[in-house]
Structures are given as C-alpha cells and as structure tokens.
Design brief:
There is one protein chain. By secondary structure, the protein is an alpha+beta fold. The chain folds into two domains: 181 residues, PUA domain-like; 110 residues, no CATH class. The protein is built from six helices and 14 strands. The strands form four sheets. Strands 1, 4, 5, 6, 7, 8, 9 and 10 form an eight-stranded mixed beta sheet that branches. Strands 2-3 form a two-stranded antiparallel ribbon. It has a two-stranded antiparallel sheet with strand order 11-12. The chain is elongated and about 70 Å long. The chain starts with 8 loop residues before the first helix and ends with a helix.
Length: 304
C-alpha cells in the first residue's frame, strides 16, 4: 500500500494504464510530454515520465513504472542504443549508465523480479511519445549493460523448446507492433497529419504508407521510407494504380485516365495526375529518400 494514495502499487499501475489507453486510443496515438504530467491520482499529480532520466520510479514504488527512449531526428544517434540486436528478435533497453547498482537500474531490475507491467515511451517527435504498454522486463544482459523487454508476461528462463519458440514468436510480434506504431506516428507527424497526395487532414483516415514494402530488403521502418496517405490513396499506391515520381509528382496509371466510373475515380485519381504532392515534410531529413522513390517508381512503371 502506498500511504499517500491509499492504493496498492498494482492498483495504481492499472489506473495509469487505463488512463493512458483513453488518452492514446489504446496506444495507437502519440501523447505529449505535457500530457504525461496530467495524470492525477487522489487529487495529486503523478508524472508518468521522468523529466531527465529514462527510467521512472515514483516515490513509494517498489519498482519502475516507465521507461523512455529519447527521440532523435534522422541521422542523429540516441544517447542509449535501445532497440533490437540483429542476431535475435528480443527488444533491449539500456541501463542508465554502466553502474548496475544505480538507483534507476535497481528499479528496473525490481520490475523484472516482480514481473510487474511497465510503460515504454518511445520518442517520435520533439516532446511527443508513443506509449507501449504493458511491457515486461524478462531478463538482463549485464555484459552489455541492458535489459530484455517483451510485451508478453513470459519468463525468459525456460527448459522447453516449445516454450522458447512461443516466447520468440511473441517477441517478433512485439517488435513488429512497436516499430509499426512508431513508424505511423513519425510519418504522420512529418506530414503534418495530412495526406501527401490530396491533403486530407483527418488522422483517423490516414495511414503511414511504406514507399518500399517492409518485406523488401530496402523496406526500412524509417520516416524516409514513408508517406502519409489517406486510405484511398494508400490502397491505390500499393496496387500501383498511382505512382509517385522521384521528383514528388503523382502519376496515374494510363488506362485509368480515360475510364469513366463516377466522381471518386475522377476527383480521387484522374485529377491527381501529374500534380505535385500536396503535403511534404518541412524538414529535408524527413523527406522520402531518392533511392526508395526510384525503387517504387520502377515498380509502378512495370504495370503502366
């Protein structure tokens, strides 16, 4: 029981995650740094993210409540290399420094030992974070100064090949969900929440379209491989009814230009032909990468 709130730590974690789910549409939307200080419990503000440190353990808690990965623009490394290793699929979170007995590292180790759920805030823009919850610390690699993280409450220690296979499958799913959520938020933010093709500005109708599909070798989960598109234009782009030239001009498949099929075809596709994109990132570092555009343009020309 945490005296000042009159609630158990588990009850507080549950309330925090319910509040986050409501604020972030179950984790699919980003939340601002200011909002993370809006959570109120029993009339008292309880900040969910530490202002300076990546690991947040509120006063009176026995273990960490949240971890944060700092946003850095394209080409600038984070202070800690949180993420995944190439040799397997497990997510990693770096220690705070290299001292295993630092208070923050002890707090995260306690979360591992108690198997309590945490929140992972991933920076997707300045002052904007994508929340992923619940996540669990399932192991530690002291030689690399890092913890192992999963979105499933599955023990890292197992004697069963089947259990190990299940855990790895869950961690693949964790990684995909985590990275795709980050990708969507970063791309939509870069395009000011507007469709690149038609400038539609309703986020619920927008997708983060991959220029090169993520199944391809070039299909990196980076904002430079994405464009914000409404669901209609995303589907048209993926099915090669619509192409984007490397100079960021829209082309429509020639056979569609003479077809008569109502206002959606006319205004949604035909009138987009040879128009420049209507929304592009202000920052040049976030604009589509030329080699990725060339790949997608060559693919479009194969059917046009």
């Amino acid at each position: 029981m945490i005296a000042r709130f009159g609630l158990s730590e588990d009850e507080i974690r549950h309330q925090v995650m319910e509040w986050l789910a409501a604020r972030s549409n179950d984790g699919s939307g980003a939340i601002s740094y200011a909002e993370l200080h809006d959570f109120v419990l029993e009339g008292e503000h309880l900040p969910l993210k530490d202002r300076f440190k990546g690991i947040r353990k509120p006063a009176g808690f026995s273990a960490a409540l949240s971890i944060t990965t700092t946003f850095r623009p394209e080409g600038i490394e984070r202070p800690y290399d949180d993420g995944v290793y190439d040799e397997d699929v497990l997510l990693r979170y770096k220690w705070d420094g290299i001292d295993p007995n630092a208070a923050t590292n002890r707090a995260l180790r306690s979360a591992m030992e108690q198997r309590v759920p945490l929140i992972w805030f991933v920076g997707v823009a300045k002052g904007l974070f994508q929340p992923h919850f619940p996540v669990y610390v399932i192991g530690e690699e002291p030689e690399h100064h890092q913890f192992l993280v999963s979105a499933e409450a599955v023990s890292a220690a197992t004697d069963s090949f089947a259990e190990e296979h299940v855990r790895r499958y869950l961690d693949v799913r964790t990684r995909h969900r985590l990275f795709q959520g980050i990708f969507r938020t970063q791309v939509l933010a870069a395009y000011q929440q507007r469709c690149a093709v038609c400038n539609l500005g309703h986020p619920t109708l927008l997708d983060a379209a991959h220029i090169v599909p993520d199944r391809e070798e070039l299909g990196i989960a980076s904002v430079v491989n994405g464009m914000a598109m409404c669901k209609f234009h995303h589907a048209a782009f993926d099915s090669r009814l619509l192409g984007i030239r490397p100079d960021l001009v829209v082309e429509i498949r020639p056979d569609l230009l003479t077809e008569v099929d109502g206002p959606m075809l006319r205004y949604g596709l035909q009138e987009m032909h040879r128009r420049p994109l209507m929304s592009i990132p202000r920052s040049k570092s976030q604009r589509p990468r030329s080699d990725l555009l060339e790949w997608a343009w060559d693919r479009f020309k194969m059917v046009s």
